[in-house]
Amino acid sequence: MSLEPRPQVSTLARRIHGWSWQAFPIGMGTGAVYVTLSGIKERSSTLTTIETVFYFLNMALFFLNTLTLVVQAIVYPRQAWRLMKDPVKGIFVPLVVLSFATIIIGTINYAFPTGHVSVNFLYALFWVYVISAVITCFPMLMIWFNKPHDLNKFTPAYAFLIFPMVLAPSVPPNITMINLYPKMLVGVVSFNILRIMDPADTRAIGVLFVGYFFQGLGFFMTFIYIVIYIIRIMITGFLDGHQANGAFVACGPPGFTALALINLGARAREILDIHGLLTPQAGEIWYATSVMSALMLYGLAVFLFLFGVLPYWFKLHKHLNEILGCWALTFPNVGWINTTRTLGDLLDIYGFRIIHLVMTITIFITWCILIVLTAIAFWKGLIFLSQEEDVLRDAVYISRTSEDEKNQSTNNSTRGSHSETTLVLPLPSSTHSDMDIHGQRMV
Fold it and tell me: The pTM is what?
C-alpha cells in the first residue's frame, strides 16, 4: 500500500506556530532604554533622537508581536490556547499590556511635546490601559490559580500576572519640567498622564486616586510573591538555569512603586490643595509620606537587585535557546534606576545622578548584547520556530474539525429535506479510529 507524501510546512508557518508571548519582553527591554535615557539631566538633540528611534522600534516590535499572535490564534487556535494555559509561557500574556504602557510613556515624552497628540487623547489612553490591565490580568489569574504549582519551581516572573496593575506608565521628569512626575504601571501611567494635565482639571482627581488604588493593589500582591520567592530560595538555594533571570523581576515592584509614590505624591501636593480635598495640609502630608515610603522601598529594590546579580553568572545556563529569559535584565530594573535619579534631584545627592547615568549606560549596553544574541538565536531557529510535526498536528486538527462540521451540516440538511422517507445512519465509529480526541494521530 502506497503512503501519501507528508505535506510540506513552510518556514513562515513554523514561525507563526512557534511564536509566543515571550516575545513581548524584547519590546519592553527596548522601551526600558528610552525610559531610562529620558531621565538623564543633561539633554541634547542627539540623545532625543536616540530615544525617539527606540520609541518607534518599540512600537514596531509591539505591532509585530500582536499581529503574529492574532494570526496564530486564527490559523492555529489550539496552539494559541495551549500557550495561554501553559504554566510557564502563560505568565507572559499580561506583558502585552506592559508593552502598551511603555508606548504610552513614549507618546507622552515624544509625541505630546511636538503637538501630535492632545491631552484628551492621552487621557483616553490612560483608561484604555486601566481597562486592558484588568481584563487581561484577572482571566489569566483565574487560569493560573486553577491548578496547583510547585513551590520548588517558583520564580518571581510569576508576578507578571499582576504587573500591569502595579505598573501604570510613568516617566521620569523632563529637563524642561519643574515638577516631579509619577511612574509604575497603573500608578506609573497615571503620574505620566498627570504631568501633562492641568491640576485644576477635575479629571486629574480621578487619575490620581486610580493611580494610588492600583499601585497599592499591585505592589502588595507582588510583595507577597517576593516573600514566596525568599521562601523558595531558602529551600532550594539561588535560582539557576533560565530561572536565574527571573530573580531580577523581584526588584521591579518595589522600584516602580517607589518612583510612583514620589511622583504621585508630588502631584497630590497640587491637586488636593487646588480642589480643597481632605484637609489644607493633606497634599503636603501625602507628599512627605510618599517620599519616606519610597526611600524604604528603594532600599528593598536595590537589595533584591544585588541579590540577583551577584550569583547570576555562576547560576545562568549559557544557552542561546534560553536567551528570551535574559530580557528580564532590562525592564524590571527601570524602576529603581529612575528612582535613583529622582532621589538625587530631591535630596540633592550628586552621587545618585552618577549612579543613574552609569546604570542607564549599562541598560543600553545590555540591550545591544541581547538584541544581537536574540537575532542569532532567531536565525538559527532556536526560538520562535515549531517542529514540522507540531504544525501538521494542529493543521490536521483544524482540517478534520472543518470536515466534520461540513459533514454534520450536510447530514442535517439531508435529514431536513428527507425527514419523512430517508433514514440517516450515523457515521461508523472507525471514521476517526486513527485519531485521538485532540486530533492527534494514534501510534
Answer: 0.79
